[in-house]
Amino acid sequence: MYERSDPVYVLNAPAAAAGRGVFVFGAPRGGTSMVAGVLRLVGIDMGARQGRGNNEDLDIQDARGPAGPLGEAGTPDYLAALDRMRPKIAERAKAQGPWGWKDPHGILYARDVTDLLPAPRLIAVFRDLAASAERVHRINGADRLDEMHSALMLQTRALDFLRETPLPAAIVSYEKALVRPERFLDQIATFCGVDVDAAEREAALAFISPERGHGDPDSPGWPRDGAI
């Protein structure tokens, strides 16, 4: 009998303890904001300073700087970005509860920061290349094929990393999560080791709706126009 596929596929299943160091990465306009927003709504601290409507920890993002120089590990710019980011991540690692951060370009430096995570949970989000490229094009007019190529590069690097890492990792299908939000919520909460109460569940399921938009979960309905 045919069984519906799941939104989340787990590699290296974690122990029961809650994740302390949940790292979400993927590609720009590739679904990472939705995943990070859900994590915020179920009680995972995704960064105290949030200000861009995309569920990113501004302390880590500002320390990282532009993503372009991170394309090649070992360069002076890359090493300088690590020198700025690692103290921020190490400071967050002192927290006793579940915490994490989201960075669509995070795979560019993942190998050099995961040693700082006390109980790592890696979440790689994959979205249809054409859809994510179209969203970027609508925002800034970027060439669709160029954006598809950039997203494919990030996805390929994520796959290479997932093949070699022994750390607990979840592969998330953005499209499947929209189709099966209840199943996605159950799977991602289990993977991160957090309990979800009725109010959190209701809020998270409402947030997953693509008609709502996947920005700041504290701003209901933002941004509705062109949400997906």
Automatic annotation (TrEMBL):
This protein's name: Sulfotransferase family protein
Lineage of source species: Bacteria, Pseudomonadati, Pseudomonadota, Alphaproteobacteria, Maricaulales
Species, as recorded: Hyphobacterium marinum
Region described as Disordered: 209-228
Stored InterPro entries: P-loop_NTPase
